[in-house]
Request: fold
Amino acid sequence: GGVMGIQINWNCDLDRKLTYCVPKYSFRRLDNREIDHNVSPGYNFRFAKYYKDSNGVESRTLMKVYGIRFDILVFGTAGKFDIIPTMINIGSGAALFGVATVLCDMIVFHFFKKRHYYREKKYKYVEDYDELVGSECGSNP
Reply:
């Protein structure tokens, strides 16, 4: 008996023609080839079948079975471009940049020693806003 491995490697770009999407097969022996270092070479096992005869005497038949086991190993990836997940990822990235700006401002304005200097540079304060608006309204004929 023996153990054979059938490896299927299937990498596929679904944006291209399906004729390019062909799996690659490889075969290899998985059991130990060295008989000297192996307790039972190949693929074999024993099992017993128990039964009672007409006199009520229990008996068994021990069977040693040899065979070939095939292990099929499949590896692969496939992908296709889609505009909707791409736009969602771009939008999420842009939103992250917006959140990062707000987070950095909070850290600078609350934890740094020169927070008053940064606040003056970040925001422009308009003094006497009511007077400024009133003078503009009064100057128009």
The first helix runs from residue 83 to 111. Residues 95 and 101 are 10 Å apart (CA to CA). Helices lie at 83-111, 115-122, 129-139. The longest strand covers residues 58-79.
